[in-house]
Amino acid sequence: MAEKRASNKGSSGTISVDIDCSEALKGLKAVTREAKKATTALQELEEQQKRIGLVPKFIKEE
């Protein structure tokens, strides 16, 4: 790629690219929101399990 850049230095043309990624961003934001909700729910579950003395083996007790 560096070779191509060096050889195009004499070029006088430009290219403009307009990409609409608003739908993709909306989707990513929705995934992020749901991931945060899931994380909160898992934290609440962990707290309840600790409260009743049921701690899964994969959770380190602090």
What would you say this structure looks like, in words?
This protein is mainly alpha-helical. The chain has a domain at 23-52. Helix content is 60%, strand content 0%. The chain is built from two helices and no strands. The radius of gyration is 25 Å and the shape is rod-shaped. The termini are far apart.
Mean pLDDT, rounded to whole units? 83
What sort of overall outline do the alpha carbons produce when their principal axes are compared?
rod-shaped
Distance between the termini: 51 Å
Given as residue ranges, the uncertain stretches (5+ residues, pLDDT < 50) are: none
Radius of gyration: 25 Å
| Number of strand segments | 0
Largest sheet: none
Question: In sequence order, what are the helices and strands, one letter per element?
Answer: HH
The oligomeric state of the chains shown is single chain
State the helical fraction.
Answer: 55-70%
Structural class: mainly alpha
Strand content: under 5%
Number of helices: 2
